[in-house]
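Objective 1.3, modelling of assemblies. Example input:
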Amino acid sequence: MQLNPNLSVRRALAAATCTLLGSAAQTSQAESTDDQWRLDTSVLYYSEQNRVTVVEPVVFLRKAIGEDSFLNFRLVYDTMTGASANGATPTNRPQTFTSPSGTSSYTTPTGQTPLSPFSDQRIAIAAEWEKPVDRMRRTVYGINASTETDYTSFGLSAKLLQDFNDRLTTLTVGIAGSYDNVMPVGGTPVPLQLMSTIVAPPPGGEDEGEGGAGQTKIVTDAIIGITQVLSRRALMQFNYSIGYSSGYLTDPYKVVSVIDGTTGATLDYRYESRPDTRLRQSFFWETVYHLNQDVVHFSYRYFWDDWGIRANTVDLHYRLELGKGSYLQPHLRYSVQSAANFYVYSLVNTDPVPAYASADYRLGDLTTTTVGLKFGIPVSPRSEISLRVESINQSGNGSPDSAIGIQKNYDLFPTIKTAIAQITYTGRF
Amino acid sequence: MHTRSVFTRRGVAWSFLRYLFLIGLATVNPIFAAEPAPAFTLPGRNQPVSLAALRGKVVYVDFWASWCVPCRKSFPWMNSLQKRYAGQGLVIVAVNLDKSRELSDRFLSEVPSELTIAYDPDGEVASAYKVKGMPSSYLIDRAGRIHSSHIGFREETASDMEAAIKDLLQQP
Amino acid sequence: MRTRPLFILFTLLSLPACTLTPVQPWDRDLLAEEKMQLIPDPTEAFIDEHIYFSKEGSSGGQGVGGGGCGCN
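Predicted structure (tokens):
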């Protein structure tokens, strides 16, 4: 029986808030044509080796209204299938996992990393309105919403851009908030409850699990940034962001293996539990430099939160002009993250139960390396097609010192390889 | 950790204050009215364009470039103005600031114009006119004095500019 | 020292004061190009943020305006 959509996708929905602050507002000053419309249609194909596959068409539309105002629309449709790690570690026998309501289960063969299967579709829409207040000031207002089987999100954002210094300096302040509702199919687990204590409901009895009590989450973000033109060829940006999430931040499908302190054999599982608040902050620096024809984008971000996660990320794009408007753009991204303070590989059965625990690899000590290449070619004076392929490699320590007994025979942090391909048509008319 | 460099706390504080001061200063936009318009002679499409030779006419000097969207939008309006008021003594001089003639030529082939085009690729005349944004326009009366200046182009405010031009044309 | 982040912030904010000759409005031809924007391709940036948000523990940071030709 198929289990339920993976929360990783739902967490991505919250990203709609962040990315609404990362809008197309800044391009309004640099439209190189006076066309009324810009249309970007893309299809993303995303594939994690042996895990999740996503096909995602995205449509982005930008319309000029009046003199200096713009409307932006974005529509995203995802189909997701596959399976992702549920946090349990591989062991020397098959493993069976049960939903909190006790009504469904799935099994993992011996020695394999347990994965929970799912299949789902999601639709997300976003709209933005940019308008000038006066010659040196603009505002951007945004709204977004998304929905899938058991998750809905609704958000608003506002941004103010103030120019100084004959528009060589721009100060931006932005805020965004979203209200999310999670209705885990299979029920919401009691935090850190042992899976062995779940009983299937009596046949014919009322099923409280399916679409049960919804869990809510509120996410707020604020950003302040300065953009400075340094020379005819160079631009620099420096941002500080802060965000606060509160509500249900746990992944209801992830578990933590409970192992025997001597043999390392898996005895049981506890549903994971994360704190119900999270304070996130980041410093972000980007520089853009125009060589003779080519353009380099380089950025660095330092992220930290009150879960103990620290992450350093560098990103480099080099746009190599090939002539006649076509280009090749290699991309490198390197990110190193240190684990959340409640991240564990597994729990020992005789240890006291911690306040919070999660074995979700995305909260662990993680290194993500991306190598990509994009090729773009104009198909008319005002339109272009581009193809981008990237390879993302995520790795961590699969043989930690804390591994006990038979755990040492297994890779407790398997490397995840992902390939993406994106084809985009951009047209102006 | 007291290093003798600009990175002392005091050095940084002063730098930051200086930055705020510069920003404050730069947001004040100097508009100089009733001063004689700086003279210039620039290469044109067929022959040099000289402001002195236009004394007695009402001259609308517009600084533009092909990469500037509002500049491109202003051309149809300027073309129409020139046609309608040439008889009364209006001369529009569109000073091009593109770094290469090829870029402005390409623009003019897409948006044909009978305006007088002058080429200022090094921005010397633009500097003399203290151009603060693109496009910038300067309305010069028949005596060669700057009547008013304007940064940017918006169709909604173009009619105000047209009224000012009509006024000046009526004056001797 | 605890005021170090603030220190760094002010130093970076003072960077513009180091711009000896401000860029003239007519010298913003290169900055006006689409590929010179801080986010040259909004769809690609959206997709990447979506991908890394769902694969890592960190997120966000970008998303402000400025640069460009400074016209109008």
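Helices of chain A lie at 7-21.
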